[in-house]
Amino acid sequence: MVTYTMPAPLPGRLATGLLLFGLTGSVIAESTDITVRVIARNAMFVGDLVEGAQVTVTDAVTGEMLAQGVTAGHAGDAKRIMGKARKRGTPVAGETDAHFTATLELDEPRYVQVTAFGPLQRRQSATRTSMTQWIVPGRHLTGGDGWVVELAGFFVHGDLAANAVSLAEAGAGVAVEAEVVPMCGCPVEPGSYWNADSYEVAALVTRGETLLGRYPLRYADTSSDFAGTFPVELPGLYDITVYAYDPASGNTGVDHLTLTVTEE
Question: Where are the domains of the chain?
Answer without folding.
Answer: 28-151, 154-262
